[in-house]
Amino acid sequence: MTLKPRLDAAAAAANMAEIEPAYSDQQAKVEADRCLYCFDAPCIMACPTGIDIPGFIKKIANGNNTGAGRTILSANILGASCARVCPTSVLCEGACVLLDRDQKPIKIGRLQRYATDHVYRKGVNGLNPSVPPSGKKVALIGGGPSSLGCAAELVRLGHEAVIFEKKPEAGGLNTYGIAYYKMPPQVSLEEVALVKSLGVEFRCGVEVGKDIAMDEILKEFDAVFVGIGLGHTHMLGVPGEELPEVVEALAFIEEFHTRPLHEVEVGRHVVVIGCGNTAIDAVTQAKRLGADTATIIYRRDEGDMPAYAYEYDIAKTDGCDFIFRAAPVKILGDGAVSGIRLVRTRPNGKGGVGPQPGTEFDVPCDMVIKALGQQKQGELLESLFPGIKLAANGKIDVDETTRQTSVDRVYAGGDAVNGGREVVNAVAEGKKAARGIHQALSGEAVEGPVQPTRIGVTGKPMGSGFNNPVRVPELERAYASGQKGS
Ligand SMILES: Cc1cc2nc3c(=O)[nH]c(=O)nc-3n(C[C@H](O)[C@H](O)[C@H](O)COP(=O)(O)OP(=O)(O)OC[C@H]3O[C@@H](n4cnc5c(N)ncnc54)[C@H](O)[C@@H]3O)c2cc1C
Predict the structure, then answer these.
(1) Crossing angle for the helix pair 53-61 and 65-75, nearest 10 degrees?
(2) Do 393 and 349 sit in the same domain of this protein?
(3) DSSP assignment, residue 141?
(4) Same domain (yes/no): 337, 403
(5) pLDDT of residue 470
């Protein structure tokens, strides 16, 4: 096995530190003052969770940072992580009217981070439980962003919400999958703590379908939200894939979140297959953890890559390499990976690409990371909900407005429904489902923000996550005791 830790603790921590530093008070004020506070703000429409962006920026400009944080968290309970991980250039910032004036858009993501960091440092909590309890109970399967968004909205509407999560900690990919340099997992864990403080119950380490039967849940609860995300990475389907240094991108990235960074093993010459955002996260993190070379292999052209342009820029800045128009044929090695055989590709006349016989070439490497996209969870869904209507591609079919599935009392959102988008889409879909569930349980439709006052400031700092530490003892403990999920 040629994989090993390559950096000491200080170097690993420095390389993985958040790439976007926090704004100082003065920087935030100067940036907030540039905002035009548009009446019909296109940035609000571009935000799937509909945050009142000009409203919170105005509050920052006036020095009311707590109010700004409250505005954000009322619309998006995961506002702190979305501030760090949202592809803002294609969402709110991409819609900023300043772009029409050939000026730089307002740095909405960084201002959002400034405001949410402020309230987390002060200690946020779910206060003012002014809504009378409905007596209704909703179970949420999976503890990722979609379920957190749904559960927060449900308790604000007066319902009980219980999250079942198979991993030791909730947060889903926000806790276990986001690139470390975009957001350390502590931020996600503190958001989970905020959702808990609103009154949501978490049953972690419980896999639905294995540790508890769906029938039991359906008997106990009035409605169910399914937020199970996606499954394992697609297989390459080439000889040599079983070698020990061939790993799934998600498993590799999860290591950063469950072990001290300087103990994570990486190859000296790493090859990543695929060119989506997950592939970029894997290749940059391999490089930042000390790989001499880290190379993306993609079967199409540079212009076809699904990764966002800013993600591609990060990888290029980090010194990662790219081989376009090539596909794997075989992973080479006798007991351990020693290289990968590739073949050049060309258009196949049907909109795809195919191999060009006779163009094979070898690239030496000692680690191969598969990042070909995650599989849908069709099999699991059919076993949990026999007869559930799935689209041909395995995604759950839901009503666009209520998010109800074809199964009575069962709703769904997030990656399992949209096939894999962003954290903010998952939160928005969870919120929408909560309103669909509320309408079904109470007969009342909900318009506009729900109970914005239910975010209070306690004066007790939440934890250490917003000081950007690089160790996560709770996740490391769970890993060390073998409770890591799959
Ligand atoms: C590597 C990677 C990097 C990403 N980077 C970004 C980014 O930078 N910015 C961004 O906005 N988005 C990013 N995304 C996308 C984002 O993470 C997802 O869209 C979002 O997490 C989806 O939320 P979810 O709740 O639908 O699913 P998930 O986050 O996948 O959560 C699903 C949860 O359900 C649990 N679960 C599954 N089955 C069961 C069961 N049977 N019983 C109990 N629990 C179960 C899982 O353990 C998991 O915790 C990234 C995705 C990946 C894979």
Answers:
(1) 170
(2) no
(3) E
(4) no
(5) 46
Q: Total domain count for the chain?
A: 3
Selection from 425, 366, 461 nearest residue 122 by Cα: 461
Q: Does the predicted model carry a pTM greater than 0.70?
A: yes
The span from the CA of 377 to the CA of 393, in Å, is 10
Q: What is the pLDDT of residue 467?
A: 42
- Rounded Cα–Cα distance for residues 219 and 227 (Å): 19
Whether 9 maps to a domain, the answer reads no
d(CA 100, CA 390) in angstroms, rounded, equals 42
132-182 pLDDT per residue, tens? 899 999 999 999 999 999 999 999 899 999 999 999 999 999 999 999 889
Please state, in angstroms and rounded to a whole number, the distance separating the CA atoms of residues 379 and 169: 24
Q: How far is the CA of 322 from the centre of ligand 1 (A)?
A: 27
Which amino acid appears at position 350 of this protein?
K
Task: Please tell me whether residues 355 and 263 are part of one structural domain.
Answer: yes
The residue nearest atom 37 of ligand 1, judged by CA position, is 228
- In terms of domains, do 271 and 325 share one? yes
Spacing, Cα 376 to ligand 1 middle (Å) = 12
The radius of gyration of the chain's CA atoms, rounded to the nearest angstrom, is: 23
Instruction: From 89, 173, 180, 431, give the residue whose CB has the most ligand 1 atoms within 8 Å, as the site to mutate.
Output: 173
Q: Which residue has the tokens 């946020």?
A: 124
Residues with CB under 6 A from ligand 1: 85-86, 141-147, 164-167, 172-174, 177-178, 182, 207-209, 227-229, 250, 253, 277-278, 281, 414-416, 421-424, 426, 485
485 inside domain: no
Give the helix/strand (H/E) hosting 442: helix 423-442
Amino acid at 192: V
| Atom nearest to 425 CA in ligand 1 | 19
Q: Rounded to an integer, what distance in angstroms lies between the CA atom of residue 212 and that of residue 325?
A: 46
Nearest atom within ligand 1 for CA of residue 371: 1
Question: Which tokens hold the place of 459?
Answer: 């004066």
Q: Are residues 170 and 90 in the same domain?
A: no
Q: What range does the domain containing 196 cover?
A: 137-231+375-450
